Amino acid sequence: MGSPGLAVDGNRSPQRASRFCTKTSQEDDPYWYVDLGYSVTVDHVTIVNRQDSLIEKITPFDLHVGDSTDVTRNPMCGGHHRFCLTDTEHVVRCGGMSGRYVGIRLPGKKRTLSLCEVEVYAATNIAWGKPTVQSDVAFNGVASRATDGCRDPDWNSACCTSTPAQSNPWLRVDLGTEVSVRWVVIINRQDRTGRRLNRFELYIGNEERVKRNQPCGSVIYIPTNKNKIATNCNGQRGRYVGIFLPGNSRTLSLCEVEVYEGTVTRKRTSEVRGTEGQDCGEHQAGDTWLSDDGEENCICEMNQTVCYEVICGEEGQDKPFQGKGGLWTCPEPAAEEEESGTVTGKRTSEVRGTEGQDCGEHQQGDTWLSDDGEENCICEMNQTVCYEVICGESGEDKPFLGKDGLWTCPEPAAEEEESG
Asked: Biased composition, Basic and acidic residues: where in the chain (predicted)?
């Protein structure tokens, strides 16, 4: 049988498969996985199939990305994937999924898994270690936690930010220079208070004031069973990435903000695993610089130098240029090429599980109390969106009706500022 290491040896030849490709015996649900060494954010995976009598054996297959060595325990990247008989390779786009292990599994009885090459193309988080500020701080939930690289969704791990309950709270990441942003990934808290982040707005631009920049899509919601969302900003350019919660008595609390540039940087599996890497020398964690040959951007991640080519346009058709910071960056896409990939505003029924409705007599931006008096409501995109006001880090404080007739949160007591 072909050694599993043949799938990451850099040899893409689908010919002479017995020498260059992996192969399992015939078995139920065969699988293969690669250990990248640490968790990375995966843009896409390219699989090179063999071109002989086993060409059809790989269809259908499943691709999994996650932190478990048990392939089936990791989330699937898309559904079942199929190779066309005329194709030597197949690209699976994973759009911001993260994990240490990338696995391929053939579902079904008596199947044989054979792979000639698997290439993992990862993305570099350019927000890591960058200066971050927010509208206010509560419970020691400082803004720098949003870019410290810690994705732990548990408040007690000291990885999450928090503002007090206030009107229109915001958080802003300074990337240091104008870049072309493709993906912004938000890691939310995974407790009862995680609901408070729902109905947020994302802005990218060169203004320090968050709302003065261009929005990336419209109002964004995180499904109740998820603690992460990846928003496609389609190459929108800017130095600052901002998160804004519209409304009264809102608490902005999140665990990580990750920003990925251009069409997402490309690194082959061997480079992701560090086989060609080196330590950062004089550079510190988060530093970025141009490679010695001037062809690639480099970044210091986990005390390892990672250099990558910036490829612009979906097929690499656009030419990158050197921005103000000397790093390669992508040109702004033409208007006709822009597509909306953002999770946009949803109807009340999708957020609360109750029937949605339009705003009736209310105008855009109007706020009012729900008919049952339990929630605040706002008119957005001609849709009524109602939300519960939760006060305190664990919902322990009781909201009250303010002068405007809406539920609001009490000011936190001074002695509670240090508690989590």
From this structure: 347-364
Query: 174: closest CA among 131, 212, 142, 209?
Result: 131
Torsion angle of alpha carbons 317, 322, 323, 324, nearest 10°? -170
pLDDT exceeding 90 applies to what percent of the chain? 26
Task: State the Cα–Cα distance between residues 393 and 137, nearest whole angstrom.
Answer: 12
Q: Which CATH superfamily is domain 4-122 in?
A: Galactose-binding domain-like (2.60.120.260)
* Other CB atoms within 10 A of residue 8 CB: 24
Q: Where are the domains of the chain?
A: 4-122, 348-416
Residue with tokens 């008919």: 371
CA-to-CA distance for 310 and 330, rounded, in angstroms? 8
Check: CB of residue 304 under 8 Å from CB of residue 275: no
Q: Average of pLDDT values for 401-410?
A: 80
Specify the pTM. 0.49
CA distance 124 to 260: 6
Distance of CA 168 to the CA centre of its chain: 23
Burial of 415 (0-12, 13-18, 19+ CB in 10 A): exposed
